[in-house]
Amino acid sequence: MWLVTEWLPALSAGWPVWLAWLPLTAGLMLMMLAAISLWRAGTTLLPFEPERSCRLVTTGVFARSRNPIYLGDLLLLLAFTLWLQSWPALLGPVLFVRYMNRVQIRAEEQALALRFGQAYTDYCARVRRWL
């Protein structure tokens, strides 16, 4: 994303750099709260091994988003985009969401559905994937 701002300076957005602190703070807080919830439940935080999940966490930030850590990641990318002050840098967060939905989250959801069955299906019906 930094290279985009160097190569295409005419597309600079010109918004205030301090705006980056808002999604940065929100993203870090969200990720921290999600990690604490998983830790308290005694289940894994590793996204590449969903089969190691021993409990389905549906409370706290997980009551609002099925993927609060990925949402936090997205907010960090948006903070970086704001810091770069570049419209083309928005491509990073867009590609992140596209990849996560098509590859990572889809695989996790399949594994969690096998692991937790109807409880996970009901959770998916109640809580949105992102927000």
From TrEMBL:
The keyword Cytoplasm does not apply. Keywords: Membrane, Methyltransferase, Transferase, Transmembrane, Transmembrane helix. It is a multi-pass membrane protein. Its main location: membrane. It is found in: Endomembrane system. It comes from the Bacteria. One of its GO terms (molecular function) is methyltransferase activity. The chain crosses the membrane at residues 20-39, 74-96. Coiled coil: none annotated. One of its GO terms (biological process) is methylation. One of its GO terms (cellular component) is endomembrane system. PANTHER family: PROTEIN-S ISOPRENYLCYSTEINE O-METHYLTRANSFERASE, SLR1182 PROTEIN. This is S-isoprenylcysteine methyltransferase. It comes from Oceanimonas doudoroffii.
